[in-house]
Amino acid sequence: MFTTVTLSLLEGFLGTLKLFVLTLVFSLPLGLVISFGSMSKNPVLRLPVRFIIWVVRGTPLMLQLLVIFYGPGIFLGNNLWGSGATGRFTAALVAFVFNYACYFSEIFRGGIQSIPKGQHEAAAVLGLTKSQAFFKIILLQVVKRIVPPISNEVITLVKDTSLARVIAFYEIIWEGERFIKSSGIIWPLFYTGVFYLVFSGLLTLLFGFIEKKLDFFK
Amino acid sequence: MQLELQNIKKSYGESDNRIEVLKDINLSVEKGEFVVLLGPSGSGKSTLLNIIGGIDNADSGKIIIRGKSMSDMDDKSLTNYRREHLGYIFQMYNLIPNLTVRENIEVGAYLSKNPLDIDEIMGVLGLAEHQNKIPSQLSGGQQQRCAIGRAIVKNPDILLCDEPTGALDYKTSKEILSLIEEVNQKYGNTVIMVTHNDAIKNMADFVVKLRDGVIRKSYRNEAKQKAEELDW
User: Fold this and answer.
1) A114 touches chain B (CB under 8 A)
2) Any idea what the CATH number is for the domain that residue A128 is in?
3) What is the DSSP letter of B117?
4) Which residues of chain B does A118 touch, with a Cβ-Cβ cutoff of 8 Å?
5) CA-based angle B198:B200:B204, to the nearest 5?
6) Mutation for B interface: A121, A126, A130, A135, most B CBs within 10 A
7) Structural domain containing residue B115
8) Is residue B172 included in any domain, yes or no?
9) Residue B231 lies inside a defined structural domain of this protein
10) Helix and strand counts by DSSP (H, E) for chain A
11) CB contacts, 8 Å: B84 with chain A
12) What ipTM describes this predicted complex?
């Protein structure tokens, strides 16, 4: 029984992992773009972006999942996502990417604004353009500073993926819960915690390694 | 004429809080001259230097460098202008923290069309043995030498120095001043140095005294001293 449960939880964990990895792949760059918007000197850009960040950070992710999944069907009369598992996954991914990009954008903004003005000035007088200065000089210093808060969000994301079951996205908790109905046992559900723990343990090691790698400069 | 400033004005803030930092500055600097801009804090000297360096914009007036007006330049030609003609040394060095001494200087060389020899410069600056260290492993004086190296490797026409010894002790300050003097003589770059240290005016060819955004006095220094003879 233990092997059966483990195998099927592993299968569920694959869904979790897929959502986790793809969310990071898209939300990190999107977060950087959003952070530029929220730092823009032009209020026509800055204010709407700040408003969106407020809404996204100010409402539960579970609610956002429901709105994004059911919203198009209800308000536009067109179910954007289709009915199958792929549709549910896409909707969940969009909700997660958007939510996490907003959180990441604030971390990026804090990191970028913490770099001394002198670094920008030095780059400018050396004759670097603004984008060269940002990507070649500023960004690595930003990355070094934001590794700890980013690791926080990333570890939260591992566990937040379980929220996707409200739109019937197939992941590890869903799989664990199934055994209550099918076999009348609850321990597989509790057992899912071990998967989360092991995975976030690995992530902790990874972030520790990255921090150490970037430790060569101050 | 290497550099000419005409009727430069600059103010910060709005209406009631408006502060005029520079009130109608006129100045011309010859090629190869060592100019010291002297003034107390708040006199507008750093703002003036930043305007020359293109980090800050004047509200009105003209900056003419080698016959070209800076106000006619767009962002791209301004970047090119800085890349080709300017070196800048800051009070707080502003080195790139993740690069070694050598790499920091290489950044300057990389951006220049006709850079000087990096090894020669590191030799002149006494940095050869530290070339593989990163800035946080260096003393303040060593960091400033590296910053000088990064600025002069481009062989800039104009070397702008904003309180380059402001964060350094007496002995190190004099070493740094001697190096800037040596660079000025050896490579013939025009040097414009901002300072509040009165003694430094003695090493200049041309002294400009600023107070409250106005040039109070400017004169050619006939009794030029060597940096190592300065005392304060």
Assistant:
1) no
2) 1.10.3720.10
3) P
4) 90, 92, 94
5) 120
6) A126
7) 3-10+19-221
8) yes
9) no
10) 9, 0
11) 127
12) 0.85
Distance, in Å, from the CA atom of A192 to the CA atom of A179, rounded to the nearest integer, reads 12
Question: Is the minimum CB–CB distance between A127 and chain B shorter than 8 Å?
Answer: yes
Q: Concatenated DSSP letters for A26-46? A: HHHHHHHHHHHHHH-S-HHHH
3-state secondary structure of A168: coil
Q: Do the beta carbons of residue A187 and residue A1 sit within 8 Å?
A: no
Q: Which residues contact A204 (CB under 8 A, 6 or more apart)?
A: A151, A155
Q: Which range marks the domain in which residue A212 is found?
A: 2-216
Inter-chain CB proximity B79 and A128 less than 8 Å: yes
Tell me the per-residue pLDDT of B31-45, one tens digit each, with 9 for 90 and over: 999 999 999 888 889
Residue B95 contacts A where some CB pair is shorter than 8 Å: yes
Shortest CA gap B1–chain A (Å): 22
CB-CB under 8 Å, B90 with A127: no
Q: B68: which strand partners? A: B65
Q: Which residues of A touch B111 (CB under 8 A)?
A: 126-128
Question: What is d(CA A20, CA A10) in angstroms, rounded to the nearest whole number?
Answer: 15
User: At A82, is the pLDDT very low, low, confident or very high (cuts 50, 70, 90)?
Assistant: confident
CB distance B97–A125 less than 8 Å?
no
How many structural domains comprise chain B?
A: 1
d(CA B170, CA B141): 11
State both tokens at A173. 């908790």
Distance from CA of A144 to the nearest CA of B (A): 10
The distance of Cα B145 from the centroid of its chain, to the nearest Å, equals 13
Q: What is the pLDDT confidence band of residue A97, given thresholds at 50, 70 and 90? A: very high
Structure tokens at A40: 């823009």
A127 and B150 within 8 Å at the Cβ level: the answer is no
Alpha carbon of A132: minimum distance to chain B alpha carbons (Å): 11
CATH code for the domain of B126: 3.40.50.300
Half-sphere exposure of B145 (CA within 13 A, CB side): 27
Residue B1 has pLDDT above 80, yes or no: no
Q: Is residue B230 part of a domain?
A: no
Q: Does B114 touch chain A (CB under 8 A)?
A: no
